[in-house]
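Dear Dr. V.,

Thank you for agreeing to look over these. As mentioned in my earlier message, I'm a first-year student in the group and I'm still getting used to reading structure tokens, so any feedback on how I've presented them would be very welcome. I ran two proteins. I've put each sequence directly above its structure. The first is here:
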Amino acid sequence: MTRLVLSGISKSYGAIQALSSVSLVLQPGEVLGLMGDNGAGKSTLVKIIAGNFPPSAGEMRIDGETVVFHKPRDAQRQGIEAVYQDLALCDNLSAASNVFLGREAMRSLGPLKYLNYRRMNEVAADLFRQLKSETRPRDLVRKMSGGQRQAVAIARTLLSQPKIVMMDEPTAAISVRQVKEVLDLIGRLKDHGISVILISHRMPDIFAVADRIAVLRRGELVASKPAAESSPEEVTGLITGAIDAA
């Protein structure tokens, strides 16, 4: 069954049309590379899928069921998680504490409740093993590389057993070695049958992991095709308008 179907998604802010009738399909375990210039509508589309705000028009279906989100929690209940560019990690906390941030495991001692660090460390360690990451649960985030920080953010999404993970510029401002770590993490998500929507300006990263590429230009979808049937040159032309559509 198709994992996600967007039909005629539009979004306007007064006279400004951010998205115009965008229709996309995402399969289970598929990596979709979402590309476009600044202001093309990528972030708006992702925030609609993530439940940050509703579309002005259009329909969204997950596993064949029509869904309407009023807040991000609604999207999370349907198995949608987002990893934004700032990662929203707390530098002064451990990897495990960040994985469980806002969803802490608790223990009870009579009327008292306290954090169950042992449980959180055990679960976080298992998630890092699934991702084949060298990140350790007790490591402080402030001492981590960019690749390790991404591992923590991705592990946090796995806590809810997601169907779809959306990643916004995960390889921006990190080293070449760390880029490979992050692309490997995306591959692990795919291996677990999780669909990934990857937003990136880095063409080599998109073509390294994406099964399908979608290009937005001025709020309109101008291409959605298998990555193997496209090229960096074609995508560049689609982004700039040198190529009208593909």
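The second protein is here, in the same arrangement:
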Amino acid sequence: MSEVMVDFIISLDGYAAAEGWPGFWGMEGPEYLAWLAEDHEPGHTILMGATTYRLMSGFAADDPGTASLTATPKVVFSSTLTEPLPWANTELIAGDAVDAVRTMKQRDSRPLRTLGSLSLCRTLLRAGVVDRFRVVVFPVITGVTGRERIFDGYPDIALDLVESRTFDGRLQLLDYVPRVLDGPPGDQR
């Protein structure tokens, strides 16, 4: 049985990106980049939605440094994309993502990890199929320029910390086991 991990990089105020800022908010350091390269070695299957697929496959076509990502098995959940998909090692699933991920968890031994795909992550978390929730927090606040607030629309979730680490003296990795809640703790509805 495989494990599903939601994996995000975020600003301190919870944004996935910010208008005019470079990737990683310009704060990626050598320690973080080394960990990222090691962490993204093939050995897992990447789950993503159509928007992330379009963005990442475009990068992969132009950047020879994405060979490891291209070699990694990928599953895209979309009702708008059609086969054949041009990015190597990519499977398209047009049906229900939650049902497909439940089946993959039972059938596959490779870990399953998301890449971006905020809507997909929200859907999988709400359905209770996510086993780990990992974020790397970048020490910036992008209240004016921030785009794509990650946690809007999420259910209430309790997070049990299982690992933490600091990269380059400023980036904080937080790795949790999530528990979807029916309401606030102690709620007597």
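From my reading of the second output: Residues 50-62 form the longest helix (13 residues). Residues 161 and 176 are 4 Å apart (CA to CA). Does that match how you would interpret it?

Kind regards,
E.
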